[in-house]
């Protein structure tokens, strides 16, 4: 049985990846420090013999007694609100955490796939974004802690690949959504759906002309799986190229949820990218991958998930209190 270590296992993407690799017949070792992850996302796996969980922060030395065939590094805060609240951990998990996992992959002879992001393109001046584009990132801005950690992560990964001959893969993940997103992570989809369900107005930042392109989680997971199994070491964009402005998207959510709330406008956060759309030619030609779930279907599934949450969970719109962890 092939063994895979998945960091960030209790998070949104990490937990879906655990499910995928269990379904594919792997032994899955999940690891998470639970700062932003939630054990609820993986509690259904604890009864399985081929699933194990380690409560550990990968920014510290990572010890796994088993042999490992694959490692997926998905541990990181991943929403602008989270990395504003825990900037230092965000930097550490992308840099020190990645270094630890590269060392572990080298010691075990395992193949490592790291979760990079469209944020490496910053506020892009090239549209749509191809993997050749070097990006436009403000190193010292509020998003810099995430963007630069991820850029360092890519650089470190390529260095291990070139210098040590380590088998590595880099996925650049564009906005992805679906069940198990954290309702209070500040991202636009849980924010809008949560507001609609609580009977609050929908908060559009800026004038809403900024664009995003949303990929359903099952498509994202399939793209990551195909990339891991491929022999391609350079970065690959995985996302859904179907682009929409945030204002039009808010209107879609109003229709989907049937809410009679209004749209209200709030200031645009600093360095919020004005447009984002993946060029997925590379994924298409190298992996034979393209997204299959359109936004109407994906949003319906996501809305059904959020509707199934208890009233208490819905009201808990306050963010987790990270204050004791912010200095580490
Ligand atoms: N956004 C918004 N209202 C909200 C939350 C987010 O208008 O309540 C906007 C945000 O400014 C950004 C877009 O939605 O332009 C996507 O934000 P998100 O945090 O989901 O992800 P990003 O792509 O910015 O990392």
From TrEMBL:
The organism sits in which domain of life? Answer: Bacteria
Name the Gene3D superfamilies for this protein. NAD(P)-binding Rossmann-like Domain
Q: Where is the NAD-dependent epimerase/dehydratase domain?
A: 4-239
Asked whether the UniProt record includes NAD among its keywords, one would answer yes
What cofactor does this protein call for? NAD(+)
Query: What keywords tag this UniProt record?
Result: Decarboxylase, Lyase, NAD
One Pfam family of this chain: Epimerase
Instruction: Kindly give the CDD domains that the UniProt entry links to this protein.
Output: UGD_SDR_e
Its protein name is: SDR family oxidoreductase
């Amino acid at each position: 049985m092939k063994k895979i270590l998945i960091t960030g296992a209790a998070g949104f993407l990490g937990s879906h990846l655990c499910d995928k690799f269990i379904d594919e017949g792997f032994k899955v070792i999940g690891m998470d420090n639970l700062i932003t992850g939630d054990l609820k996302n993986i509690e259904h796996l604890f009864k399985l013999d081929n699933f194990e969980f380690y409560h550990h922060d990968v920014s510290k030395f990572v010890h796994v007694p088993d042999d490992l065939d694959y490692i997926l590094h998905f541990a990181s805060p991943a929403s602008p609100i989270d990395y504003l609240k825990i900037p230092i951990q965000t930097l550490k998990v992308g840099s020190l955490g990645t270094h630890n996992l590269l060392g572990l992959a080298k010691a075990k002879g395992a193949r490592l796939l790291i979760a990079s992001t469209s944020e490496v393109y910053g506020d892009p001046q090239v549209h749509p974004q191809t993997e050749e584009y070097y990006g436009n990132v403000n190193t010292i801005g509020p998003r810099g802690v995430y963007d630069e950690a991820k850029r360092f992560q890519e650089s470190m990964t390529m260095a291990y690949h070139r210098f040590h001959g380590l088998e590595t893969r880099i996925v650049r993940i564009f906005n992805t959504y679906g069940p198990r997103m954290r309702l209070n992570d500040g991202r636009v989809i849980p924010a809008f759906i949560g507001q609609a369900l609580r009977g609050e107005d929908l908060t559009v930042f800026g004038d809403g002309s900024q664009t995003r392109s949303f990929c359903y989680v099952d498509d994202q997971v399939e793209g990551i799986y195909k990339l891991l199994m491929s022999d391609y070491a350079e970065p690959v964009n995985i996302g859904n190229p179907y682009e929409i402005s945030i204002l039009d998207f808010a209107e879609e959510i109003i229709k989907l949820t049937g809410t009679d709330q209004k749209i209200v406008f709030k200031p645009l956060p600093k360095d919020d990218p004005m447009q984002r759309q993946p060029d997925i030619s590379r994924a298409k030609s190298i992996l034979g991958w393209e997204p299959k779930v359109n936004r109407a279907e994906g949003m319906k599934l996501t809305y059904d998930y959020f509707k199934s949450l208890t009233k208490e969970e819905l009201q808990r719109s306050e963010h987790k209190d990270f204050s004791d962890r912010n200095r580490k």
